Amino acid sequence: MYGILDVIARKWALLIIAILGNEGCKGFNELYKELKGISPRTLSKNLKELAKHKLLIRKIVSSNPPRVKYCLSDDGWKLRESLIPLLIWVSERNGHSAEWCPIKMKAKHKI
User: Fold this and answer.
1) CATH assignment of the domain containing 68
2) Which of 18, 27, 71, 96 is buried most deeply by CB count within 10 Å?
3) Which H/E stretch holds residue 39?
């Protein structure tokens, strides 16, 4: 069993949170296409752990066949908002240009 810090410290976890915060709910294949270099197994493991720690909500969309969408939970949005000052701090120290950042500073909270 992993603690929440172990989960968000994984290589892809914060990028998943960034994409969902920028663009809203997404399905597995949509996330897989955006996260260049991630394996399906790693993506699946990250999504399960983020949902287990209530940072994501797993929604079943009634369609034929049924589909699953992943959205940020309230805690996921809080985590996303707490990342923004860190990214600003990094960009102010020439660590990276803010443009590379997958987190858009003005995204709105929506579930």
Assistant:
1) 1.10.10.10
2) 18
3) none
3-state secondary structure of 27: strand
pTM of the model: 0.78
Are 27 and 8 in contact by the 8 Å Cβ rule? The answer is: no
Residue 86 lies in a domain: yes
For a pLDDT cut of 70, what percent of the chain falls above it?
Answer: 79
How much is the average pLDDT of 34-61? 94
Residue 12: give the domain boundaries.
4-100
Return the closest-CA partner of residue 82 out of 19, 7, 26, 17.
Answer: 17
Q: Is 30 exposed, middle or buried (0-12, 13-18, 19+ CB in 10 A)?
A: middle
41 has a pLDDT exceeding 90: yes
